[in-house]
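Protein in question kept underneath.
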Amino acid sequence: EELKLFLQNFGAGARALTAGETKAFLAAGDV
């Protein structure tokens, strides 16, 4: 749930990560 909230906040405005960093983050979070 924390990841979902983070992604909602991220999508709302903070697009600081590159596509590659986002992929890496999602891969690490997808346990």
